[in-house]
Amino acid sequence: MANIMEIQNVSKIYGPLKALQDVSLSVPPGQWLAIMGPSGSGKTTLMNIIGCLDTPSLGEVILDGVRLSSLKPGELTTIRREAIGLIFQQFHLVSYLTALENVMMAQFYHSLVDEGEAMEALERVGLSDRARHLPRQLSGGEQQRVCIARALINHPKLLLADEPTGNLDEINEKLVMDILHKLRGGGSTIVLVTHAPEVAAHADRVIVLEHGKLAEDRLNERGGDAGPLAAAGLAESEGEVGGAKMAS
Ligand SMILES: Nc1ncnc2c1ncn2[C@@H]1O[C@H](COP(=O)(O)OP(=O)(O)OP(=O)(O)O)[C@@H](O)[C@H]1O
Ligand SMILES: [Mg+2]
User: pLDDT tens for residues 172-207?
Assistant: First the structure.
């Protein structure tokens, strides 16, 4: 099957600084990719380029067969809202809107989503009972799950998450990882930035950036075909995140 994402010799240059240097990467559909690397190594820069929030100085990104450099800004916005779900470390929730209304606003305020659809997305992250709460009435973990629900509107093919568990305690981290496992089990392609090896261990593949360069690219070892099976198992039994099981 064709790759959902092709990054070809991408560089991002800010004056004397090369935030990304000649990065190339192919990602097949359904893969869960973790991006690691020290602070300032270019992880968010790469995510922003994949997420159509930024453009490379050099090189090409091809998403689902579409060469992004060939698109006009309006067309980039269309791809972003139709094919991509974005989850950030900073929650970016609107403080005076309820959880449900935040999800209805969808990402980038491109449209108002049907209330039923928004409710369904909240259910998928286990938050239907918090739908009428304002962000300040929600815990950090719950706010992050609202952001995930918002990213799931439109059922994006590609889910990009920049340190989605960075602000969370262990229990909420586990809830978020559980949701990501279920999404991967459902066929979504996931790109996850994380500093935490135990979070990266959930992914199928880990790349490491150093000074904007691709320093490492490895598959996480699993027993047999444990990835999809573990994900399916998770969908049935809550509370069985396979971190230890799946880590190499
Ligand atoms: N708009 C910008 N203008 C100039 N330099 C920038 C800009 N955005 C990012 N940089 C620089 O590019 C480098 C990579 O930044 P990036 O945000 O991608 O790092 P990161 O790997 O996500 O780090 P962290 O783990 O701290 O989030 C950094 O040195 C940063 O200062
Ligand atoms: Mg970053």
Answer: 889 889 999 999 998 999 999 999 999 999 999 999
Q: How far is CA 243 from CA 104, 130, 231, 234, in A?
A: 32, 28, 11, 11
pLDDT of amino acid 107: 57
Burial pattern 12-50, b for ≥16 Cβ within 10 A else e, equals: beeeeebbbbebebebeebbbbbbbbeeebbbbbbbbbb
For atom 2 of ligand 1, the residue with the nearest CA is 14
Q: Which ligand is nearest to the CA of 162?
A: 2
Pocket test for ligand 1, best of 13, 23, 35, 45 (most atoms within 8 A of CB): 45
Spell out the domain ranges in the chain. 5-237
**Rounded CA separation 104/97 (Å):** 10
pLDDT digits (tens, 9 = 90+) for 89-117: 777 889 999 999 999 886 555 567 788 98
pLDDT of residue 241: 32
Q: Which atom of ligand 1 is nearest to the CA of 163?
A: 27
Q: Name which residue leads in pLDDT, 208 or 242.
A: 208
What is the pTM (predicted TM-score) of this model?
A: 0.85
Q: Which CATH superfamily is domain 5-237 in?
A: P-loop containing nucleotide triphosphate hydrolases (3.40.50.300)
